[in-house]
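User: What would this chain look like folded?
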Amino acid sequence: MSPRRSYDQYCSAARALDLVGDRWTLLIVRELLAGPRRYTDLHADLPGVSTDVLASRLKDMERDGLTTRRRLPPPGAAYVYELTGRGRELLPVLQALGAWGAPELGERRPTDAVRAHWFALPLLRALEGEGLVEVQLEEGEFHVFVGEDEGGPVYGEGLAPREPDARLVLGVETCTAVAQGELSLPDAVRAGRVEVSGEGTLAKALREA
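Assistant: Here's the prediction, encoded as C-alpha cells.
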C-alpha cells in the first residue's frame, strides 16, 4: 500500500483531493455506485487501467474509508468491493463533475471505450420522481433507482431486478444530448427519440409531460 500523498494545504478542497484526486479513483467510485463488484468486473469496466494501479487504488480507498472488501458466501466465495457510507457521499460530486464535463463529450472518438451503464448517472440527473427505470441502448441495458436513497445501489447493469416503473429505449446520441443539457428527457419523448413503456408513475409522467 502506497503512503498517502498530500497537498499539505489546510483547505477542504485540498483534503478532498488528497483522497480522491488520484487518477481512476472517482471512476472506481462510479462503478461501485452500482453495488458490490468483483475485482475482475471492475477491471473489465475500467478499460485502460493496469492491474497494478487498480489494486493499488482499491487498497488506498479501503485504507481511507471509502470502500470495504468482503467475501461472498458460497457458492460465490469471491471477494467483492463496495462503497462505505463515506464513499457513497461522492455521488453528488460525480453528478456535478459529469454535468460540468458534459460539454466536452463532443463526437465519440475512435479510441473511446463505451459501456451502456456509463449513461446511468447522466440519466439519473434527468429523471424526476421516484422509482425503478430500465434503460435499453444499442450497447446494452442498465437500470437506475430514481429518488431512492436507502444505502443501496444507485444503478445496475442489465435488466431491472423487478418490474420497473418505466422502460426507456433510446440511442446513445439522444442520451448524450440529454447529458449535455441540449435536450430534456420530456422533449426527447415528445420528439419520438425515446420510447417509453410501463404503467408506473414515472412512465406516465414522461408520456404526459
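The mean pLDDT is 93. If you want, I can go into more detail on any region.
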